[in-house]
Amino acid sequence: MKLNPSGRPYFILNVILTGVILLIAGYSFFYSPDEEKYPVPCVHEKITGEPCPSCGLSHAFSLIVRGRIDEALQWNSQSLRVFLFFALQMVMRIALGARTLITIRGLKQVTITDAAVSSAMALVAFYPFMRSLWLTLF
Length: 138
Fold this sequence. Notes:
Radius of gyration: 18 Å
Number of strands: 0
Number of domains: 1
Helix content: over 70%
Shape: globular
């Protein structure tokens, strides 16, 4: 199947975003939540000694992919909403990428709707972090 040139950039964007989400999922699967060997430390906590709103998110993701939701919420109370954002985005990226392979009809409307829905999802998922940042800065 040959991809129409006008749908190529959108298809590539979906492939890249799917890849990034799969890397996050792989990181979550690879590192055991029962060991403290996460390679990405919290810079905020290292500098200030205080945990930031996203502290424990990597650990929580590792717990979520193993079905240990209650424990994940203890590590970071917002972890499930952020995890669901990424999971839904992966499903959307795969579906929209496949749709682009099948047809480019209505591509402009699809991309506009995609941007609006993804933005709304991001605001819902990351609102607690944005609010905390706002309160910290102002």
